[in-house]
């Protein structure tokens, strides 16, 4: 979280698998109840309803404004950041993002969705919060994760932001993003999880728990039978090969370009492929995009104040 005078800038990466802020990461899961549920450790109460944050799995939807879910998840993210500074009331600017090629088409709608309440009251984890949402700034995913050092990049660089739902690809030439060379594909890590489920069922006639799959993708191994491990590794390796096929379809040349991999998909590239460490770099901070949104908003707001 950054501050400009009395206003707090809170960056939020509204991922399809996880919501990230500068200091927190939690699952993009939410369940709504008309009456208070039995377990309330992660309960948020807003507008007369009770929500359990991080419960279940929210399916991929390119339009994030179709229901209240991402708005409520945003409130939870803001509360987590304010708690870091022991605040329960604040004027805030929300800095968020959208997939590269969707930003221009969805920016106005997503901004309106996040700023629909200029003033909002809610309770999260038994604490009352009172927010004044002064502004919402929307930035492109992918670029945000490298924004703080983008101007230092030399030559031709390719940024691949591999999230849970989408893969965003952006060309940078001598530190400048190329407007006509950016792509968004529905080929995030959840596609890998689905492929693993299917392959495992076909070869063993058994289901594999997603927690095991997640552990495997993040660490490269799991405490399971070698034969089962082989199935998951083989499917994950094929997914990573498809990543590089798609990057080459977009003009990627590993001999003349440097590839920067951001997002959760970076661990899959690390664990299930061979790569040239001089040509493939990783932004390992899962919160890099959220921090990047804050950085971009702070620079923009301070620049506007000088005009």
> Number of helical segments?
8
Task: Give the overall pLDDT as a whole number.
Answer: 94
Tally of extended strands?
15
SS strand fraction: 25-35%
Overall outline: globular
Structural domains: how many: 2
Secondary-structure element string: EEEEEEEHEHEEHEEEHHHEHEH
Unreliable sequence segments: none
User: CATH homologous superfamily name of the largest domain?
Assistant: ATPase, nucleotide binding domain
CATH fold category name of the largest domain: Nucleotidyltransferase, domain 5
* Radius of gyration, taken over Cα atoms and rounded to an integer in Å: 20 Å
Which structural class matches the secondary elements?
A: alpha+beta
> CATH first level of the largest domain: which class?
Alpha Beta
CATH architecture of the largest domain: 2-Layer Sandwich
Q: Termini distance?
A: 24 Å
Brief overview, please?
This protein is an alpha+beta fold and 307 residues long.
Describe the structure in your own words.
This protein is α+β, with helices and mostly antiparallel strands and 307 residues long. It folds into two domains: 2-140 and 289-306, ATPase, nucleotide binding domain (Nucleotidyltransferase, domain 5, 2-Layer Sandwich); 153-275, ATPase, nucleotide binding domain (Nucleotidyltransferase, domain 5, 2-Layer Sandwich). Helices cover 35% and strands 30% of the residues. It is built from eight helices and 15 strands. Strands 1, 2, 3, 4, 5, 6, 7, 8, 9 and 10 form a ten-stranded mixed beta sheet that branches. Helix 4 (189-204) packs across helix 6 (226-249). The protein is globular, with a radius of gyration of 20 Å. The two termini are 24 Å apart. The relative contact order is 0.15.
